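Hey Z.,

So I finally got round to the magnesium ion thing we talked about over coffee. Here's the setup:
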Amino acid sequence: MSASTTTPMNSAVSLLGPAKLIRLLSNLQYPAMGITGLLALWWVGGLLIENNENLSAFSAFAPAPAFHALYDLVASGEIWAPITSSLYRILVGLTWGIAIGVPVGVTIGYIGVALKVANVPFQFLRMISPLAWMPIAVMAFETWDSAIIFLLVMATVWPIIFSTAHGVRRIDPNWFKVARNLGASGTQMLRRIILPAIMTDVMAGIRLAVGVAWVVLVPAEYLGVTSGLGYAINDARDTLSYDYLAAVVLVIGIIGYGLDSVCNLLIKRFNWHAE
Amino acid sequence: MGASLSIDYVTHQFSPSAAPTLKDIDTRIDPGELVALIGRSGCGKSTLLHMMAGLLIPSQGCIRINSHQVSKPSAKWNMMFQKASLYPWMSVKENAALGLMFAGLQKAEAVEKVNSLLDMLGLHDKKDVNVQSLSGGQQQRVALARSLATDPDILLLDEPFSALDAFTRTALQEEVPAICRERGITMIIVTHDIDEAVAMADRVLIMSQNPGRIVDELEVGLPWPRRHMDNGFQIRREELMNRFKGTDTGLQGRQQPITTQQSESAA
Ligand SMILES: Nc1ncnc2c1ncn2[C@@H]1O[C@H](COP(=O)(O)OP(=O)(O)O)[C@@H](O)[C@H]1O
Ligand SMILES: [Mg+2]
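And the result:
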């Protein structure tokens, strides 16, 4: 009888439990402090700019106008088009990065000599900023879009390759021996043993790759294309709408954080290591 | 049904310039026989067992199972190692069913088939748990289920219980030979524990070191199940110990294996 009269509110509390709820809130306490600190810095910076005659043209960078502009962008729906374009490019670039990076990583991780051969050239290529490929990319690809995606692939393959190779090298050799002993074929070894064994490392590589790709994407979108968040920033600068510029910067940060959190969740999901 | 195993003049060097690890090993094991292979650490027991499993090919001579030369691993002659080496991304039942999945069965079908095996090995309430939460003994039971699931003719055990606590070890020393006898599986266990050899084997092969060769053997000939406290057990144990010492010191240069006529005095 009492069970049937529980209100949704009560059941939510009992689902979480008061102790859990308190723990959740206290977990949020430190991030909240960090965010507050950041906002305070921004606010102080805004005040300094406003009170400096040389800079006062940029006073729209302050939090209040920026949040106002953000509200406008979201309310009018204007923000969704650049977000979709940017995320689409990330998705395509990352897909290629995975499609190339995982097989290459498995190969050089599995064949010890291949890793020794590939190590120096790959480390060398990895240290070149993806943006440095821009002139080549522009010449090599017909559209700006494919040039940008090429840059994203250059940004994403290396962390995926290295992380995958590292994962393969870390596989317990007994796992191969046991599987061989049970009559595993080459493809079965790959599907049932190697891929699940390296999944955590691959996901960690993807997380790094997403971080780099997101950072590279915005400057890459300054060039040529007429869509995406990088373009939106450029556009806001050209029209001197600094409040909108600041709002787009906020969006970039929020989405970047969101992408990283998704990767982190996936890592947890695929992680088979005991806590 | 168990298979016969024949080791034909096996000599092995890990590199062409190295001294042979194994030299002129030539012996036969009957279908369904339970054999223990004892010897000091580093004498080549694991090397020989890997060859029987098809995981290593001898540089000279060959291994035959039912008179077919062993050239690659097969789930029909299955090896169990000191470490269970379970796959942590699979549940207990999936680990046990792995060999069947490699043989082409669907996962559901394979898992269904290992059910009774897991029950028999006392893992009925562990089928769905993460293998990392199991004790060492339970993990080794899962590894045993994994090895038995493919209905092997030969079970090869490489010091499989040496990392386990005494209770679990004693229990498995009793269970494994019982299972093998019931199913007619030929069992070869490598151990450096003389008690384990007497507890589990019909016949004990004694290996010497540098190079590794089989220098002596002993028929255990005790009834099952074996009790460590029994008089017969103690006598067998003493005898094996003496033989082992005999081969280990002073008699290093002995070339011919001593085949046992003197071991009828058992029982
Ligand atoms: N893969 C290998 N390469 C070179 N030497 C090896 C290899 N495996 C084993 N050995 C050597 O062969 C000898 C026998 O090893 P092993 O068969 O493991 O002995 P046991 O199992 O009796 O302790 C040892 O001296 C060991 O160092
Ligand atoms: Mg060994």
